[in-house]
Fold:
Amino acid sequence: MRWRYLLAALAALALPAVPAAAADWVDEWQALAARTGFEGHRKFADLLADPAAIALVRDWDAYRGYSARSLIAAAKLPPELKPGLEITAADAGRYPWLKDVLPAPSYDRLMSSDWFRWKKIRIVPTTPYVASRKRLEATRAAGAFSISPKGELLDAKGNFAMLTEAGLPYIKPANGLELYWAFLSRGVGNDNAALKPMELVSCQPDNRVERRYVMHLWWQKMHGRVDVNPLGAIRGEDDTVEAGSIVFLAPRDIKGLAAVRRRFASADKPDAFLGYVPTMKRTRILGGTDTQDPMTPGIEATWDEWRQSWLKPDPRKFDFNIVGETFILSQPEVGHAYDPAQYAGNECEIETIDLELRPVWILEVVDKTGNYVYGRRRLYIDKEFHYAQYQEMYDQRGRLWRVLDDAGDFDPATGLWMARNYVLWNVIGNRYNRITMQADWSILTQDMARFLDIERLRDY
Structure:
């Protein structure tokens, strides 16, 4: 009997290794790549097929109890809505369900015959998006969270959780404020981040380029660091949650313009926001309404949009309400392989934009003071990884003003993130900003102190 078991064991060792259970999203991406012949699709399919990436997805799904794909599988969706479908203005009428899943501002761009036209949308597979394995371990180990009357996120001991906890809060949020904290706590999806360069093209209503900008941007998480050294906390940043900085390299008339902004855990401690103005050769303290201004003339993004939405969640000033749940088509987080918003001859139009079906909560943030730049902000927050898939910003009169659909740079094998693009447009002024970003992954091994010091950044 022992020999029989030994022979069976040896025979098993001689068999070829059995791969992990098939990942249907990998199969769909590989089929799409074969169909389109597009190198970006093939590259992303290869990244997703990494066994480490598949295992990471399965572990997050097991913890969460569902996935974007399981929610979609349980929904009644049109059979035509599948990877590889391409739609233009000429044939959009064949798909009456399109208006149900493509947000109205995006549908208007597809149907546009004048400013900021989208010539074609292409559906890609719904993909699992997750955080890192160490972030998963920290989330499993985290204690209970609560929110103070001032809107501060607290840990089980009543301390500021953004200074003490590495885990993500409110995986299954029960209300709007919990959902906003689930979104905000995700940060940039990394302990360190750098975008070098960021290139912005500002387009006029007649689809002509008005100005071009080149920038470098940095971001750092100060506490709860689990993926990048130094782990734990950054020395000297005792009450700082995170910080970001930016320096403009072009055009020549604003070259050297720089800003550094630090966010603190206390709701009553305003951000430390410093700007260097090269024409004046001096550093200014910024604050208050400065955060609501466009970053420079021609840029639609305000300083509160330079990281999707960086509004401080103070319920004394804002209401946070979940007003619905739905599925939407928005850009996929494929930036590690390619830019999903493809341009041809005219930089102020989109030739082809890849879109992916995502399950989202609809979160409305309403200004109660009448003093904020937006009277209302609507965020479509992903149910799988709490990223804002799409944003609509309304002015104080209730008119839709700006729209943002951005794409992340997601590394499937590690669960780490940076950014790839902003597709940002102003529906009142008929203006469009194309922002493309190149992640600098070498920042994960660098000391970032010099990039977050305005006095050193002014000499960058």
